[in-house]
């Protein structure tokens, strides 16, 4: 990612109107090859390609989350991978190659950034809090958050936002798409840092199949965010 990052990058556009670069495809291929060597009995679910078998152990990979900023010259992008067992994230890693920051968590063993333990924010109100809003209904939800004195932003990288939640910089992020690779590593890393991750309605879900979005939060603000989303009329959503 570091070697390929530059202005004027060539990119294609997928059916869902998101960009894809040669870097996305190359990293996805590398991950599949390495997992096949080390864990041939496991399955792989990647954004650009996969090897979905019948194993209960599935590696869920986003080779380059933040392809929009990556391919347009601004440095907000990460690599993400998680191991799921029967749909539950048990291991996760997120790597920011620009700042050389590696977040890692294993279920029940805490979360770490470059080998130092990390924890979520302890903030219990919205005033002056940062929330990443990767959501299809950004405008009405953003307006409601701003009314609560939130700094609502859109990073165009859900995994990068999850990393910042786990590190205690953002109090939450809201993600309104169905791509499991954007949430699988965030789930275990944020929760091992003391936070909470559910679908948009506050429920648990599998991360080896399409998801119902997710909310990743520091915990104290989670239920209020769920209620805020539930009270956003469907007619106000852009989808």
User: Could you tell me how far the N terminus lies from the C terminus, measured between alpha carbons in angstroms?
Assistant: 32 Å
Output the number of helix runs: 6
CATH top level class name of the largest domain: Alpha Beta
Helix % is: 10-25%
Q: What would you report as the Rg, rounded to the nearest angstrom?
A: 17 Å
Which sequence of SSEs, written as H and E, runs from N to C? EEHEEEHEEEEEEHEHEHEEH
Class from helix and strand fractions: alpha+beta
CATH topology of the largest domain: Fructose-1,6-Bisphosphatase, Chain A, domain 1
Keywords:
239 residues, Fructose-1,6-Bisphosphatase, Chain A, domain 1, D-Maltodextrin-Binding Protein, domain 2, 2 domains, five-stranded mixed β-sheet, 28% strand
Care to describe what's here?
It is built from 6 helices and 15 strands. It has 239 residues and is an alpha+beta fold. The strands form 3 sheets. The protein has an 8-stranded mixed beta sheet with strand order 4-3-5-6-7-8-9-10. Strand 8 (101-106) and strand 9 (111-113) form a beta hairpin. Helix 4 packs parallel to helix 5. Mean pLDDT is 93; it is low at 235-239.
TL;DR of this structure?
With 239 residues, the chain is an alpha+beta fold.
Explain the layout of strands and helices:
Blueprint: E1 12-13, E2 19-20, H1 22-38, E3 43-46, E4 50-51, E5 57-65, H2 67-71, E6 78-85, E7 88-96, E8 101-106, E9 111-113, E10 116-117, E11 130-134, H3 138-147, E12 151-153, H4 158-166, E13 172-175, H5 184-192, E14 196-198, E15 214-217, H6 222-230
Parallel strand pairs: 3-5, 11-12, 11-13
Antiparallel strand pairs: 1-2, 3-4, 5-6, 6-7, 7-8, 8-9, 9-10, 13-15, 14-15
Helix pairs in contact: 4-5
């Amino acid at each position: 990612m570091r070697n390929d990052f530059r202005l004027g990058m060539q990119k294609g556009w997928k059916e869902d109107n998101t960009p894809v670069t040669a870097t996305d495809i190359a990293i996805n291929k590398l991950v599949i090859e390495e997992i096949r060597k080390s864990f041939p009995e496991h399955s792989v679910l990647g954004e650009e390609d996969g090897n979905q078998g019948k194993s209960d152990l599935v590696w869920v990979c986003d080779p380059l989350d933040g392809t929009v900023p990556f391919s347009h010259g601004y440095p907000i992008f990460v690599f993400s991978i998680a191991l799921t067992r029967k749909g539950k994230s048990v291991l996760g890693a997120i790597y920011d190659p620009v700042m050389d920051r590696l977040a890692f968590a294993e279920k029940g063993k805490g979360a770490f950034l470059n080998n130092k333990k990390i924890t979520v924010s302890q903030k219990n109100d919205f005033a002056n809090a940062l929330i990443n809003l990767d959501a299809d209904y950004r405008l009405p939800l953003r307006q409601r958050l701003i009314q609560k004195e939130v700094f609502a932003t859109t990073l165009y990288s859900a995994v990068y936002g999850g990393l910042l939640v786990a590190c205690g910089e953002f109090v939450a992020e809201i993600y309104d798409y169905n791509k499991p690779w954007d949430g699988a590593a965030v789930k275990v890393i944020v929760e091992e840092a003391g936070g909470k991750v559910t679908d948009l309605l506050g429920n648990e879900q599998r991360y080896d199949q399409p998801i119902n979005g997710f909310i990743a939060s520091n915990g104290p603000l989670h239920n209020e965010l769920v209620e805020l989303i539930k009270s956003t009329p469907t007619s106000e959503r852009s989808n």
